[in-house]
Amino acid sequence: RWLRARNFDLQKSEDMLRKHMEFRKQQDLDNILSWKPSEVIQLYDSGGLSGYDYEGCPVWFDIIGTLDPKGLLLSASKQELIRKRIRVCELLLRECELQSQK
């Protein structure tokens, strides 16, 4: 993945991979699925896993029409909102891995 992203330049690919690993370590992404967002985010941030499509892929939805972004930003930190989105990505990756084992 990193080699393709950097046109097979080994040094740039290695740098990118190291930055990726450092980011995962800084954000504690190996344990992010056990992290629970604050009550405000749980109540007012939209989205959820609605099921799986006919091929078994997870289907995630985000209802943005009723979302109050200003209210969320005033009630929770930007970092916590970003962490919530990263958690969603990790959750979906895990779901894809589980589905591919079936």
UniProtKB/TrEMBL annotation:
A cellular component term, taken from the record's GO annotations: cytoplasm
Name of one Pfam family that matches: CRAL_TRIO
CRAL-TRIO domain mapped to chain residues: 47-98
InterPro entries named in the record: CRAL-TRIO_dom, CRAL-TRIO_dom_sf, CRAL/TRIO_N_dom_sf, SEC14/CRAL-TRIO_domain
Chain segments annotated as coiled-coil in the UniProt record: none
Gene3D superfamilies found in the cross-reference section: CRAL-TRIO lipid binding domain
Name this protein carries in UniProt: SEC14-like 4 (S. cerevisiae)
Organism per entry: Neovison vison (American mink)
